[in-house]
Amino acid sequence: MARPEAFNFTCELRTRAGTGGSRAVRREGWVPAILYGDDEAPANIKLRFNEVIAQISKGNMIGTLAKITIDGKEQFVIGRDVQVDPVKDQPVHLDLMRVSRKTRTNVEVPVHFTNEDKCPGLTAGGVLNVVRHAVEVIAPAMEIPEFFEIDLEGLEVGDVVHVSKITMPADVELTVTDRDYTVATIAAPSAMRSADSEEEDEGEEVAAGEVPSDQKDGDE
């Protein structure tokens, strides 16, 4: 459950707001953004396009701690929303939330699986069926885990991995606490499932072809 180092975005204040101002910012190689939260007034800012693209490609834009510097003041932030152009598939606007050491926030933390080679169910041909690729938690904004690890060692075909298998840090808690929901399962190989299905079908056909006992008695 490593905690990633905060990326430092190049950031400047925007002098023009509105659609026209945003278009001008994009032409100059920036992405317009709004900065809010931490009991301060919202601010119109802009981030370097190439830096934003790089972090999006790494999956480090939403729910990940980052840093910006405005007028010489360093500020920690978390990406909350990325608006994307539906045609060009490029970011056109960002929502960033200011955070501090007292801030706790809801985030989705990715789940990684380890020791797949030591999982009897997988080595026998089973399939890891991931139900949830991320788990939503409430965590200190300055210490959001980069990912959670789940150890698959010893699991057999048919075993279910529940969220309780994840060891949470003392300062991190699940948002869903009323049930131990499924994160993944070790599913049977498709060939095994097909064989089982065929056996069931054959059993049904035999049952359908049997002559009821009362009819047998009547024919004798």
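The record above closes out task 2.4. Task 2.5 opens with a second protein, given below.
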Amino acid sequence: MTDNALAGARVLLGVGGGIAAYKAADLVRRLRDAGAEVRVVMTANATRFVSALTFQALSGHAVRDSLWDESAEAAMGHIELARWASQVLVAPATVDIIARLAQGRADDLLATLCLATGAPVAIAPAMNQQMWAHPATQANLATLRQRGVRVFGPDSGGQACGEFGAGRLMEPHSLVAALAATQAPGDLAGWSVLVSAGPTYEDIDPVRFIGNRSSGRMGFAVAAAAAARGADVTLVAGPVALATPAGVRRIDVRGARQMHEAVLGLAGASDVYVAAAAVGDFRPDQVAPRKLKKASDATTLELRLVQNPDILADMAALTGRPFLVGFAAETERVEAHARDKLERKRLDLVAANEVGPGRGFEAEDNALLLLWPGGREALPRAGKRELAEALLDRIVQLRQGRQDGNPA
């Protein structure tokens, strides 16, 4: 997806008062590189992090930060700005800004502009992970979404406060791509894309379970990228602590059988299925109704495991099945094992990666080897959103080749 859709766009960028405000400077530059004209409105707190002069130099326009600018307001400047914009983007959108927008407040210039404009409004949240997860914040976001406000992000990762989790501002290049996707149909417009992500947990008793280290980030990145490119996306997620990507429907499951039921139930309405989830192969034969207690003389515990249903194999057996993309997380002989999975399960494409300490599941970046009948492509180590875009590029090429009757 290119950013040409932003050529000639009039973007009113609202900058909130958080440490992520420094990224808004790069965002202005990237928006202008994409062909947009940018004007910046800052909150009073934002000026404590980045100077207005920085944004003036980058945007080429004077920056506004107050309703009480007498020279501008003599001509009703806030209304003029609201009418000028073809798109409003608030980045970073702090928890306070989100709350005030949800309440319909007009107590500063930025909030007033968001009420006075007829242009689409998008916000890119940035805050501490506990603030993001708070029910009040999530309720305010739900209110804004119902009113048609687009929510971009947030990303998950290390935060300035030293904590780790969801709440990081999306990177400027990703925000530009997301905004561009709202301006014109993407290359996946009209596609129905089904993605599964994260681990599955198989309960042993009410306290313990068998699981794996999958964070779900790769599958969530695929879902976010597909939605930004115009696809109708449904995400079936195992137990993860990640925010739902903008424009994506989410179904939460816990175990492999739940995921199997959800995915197979959506197969007929899907054009593409990306199986990024790390589904447990086995589960305990019986789930204890109470916590298993350690006997005083016991030194071992035996669990009888039974095999879970194979989601990809069952999808491949369907008549009129979707385009199937599997993932292979391997600790050795990565290409050999992935090629075997591709052929044995009759997939259209498999994305393989090596997992282990610092690689794959628990890392913010990754490297993928894409394999398909008659072809391969190595994607070097990069952020998972970048890899998701490259994966979707290959899916588009292969699926189009299949529809045209041509080999990839």
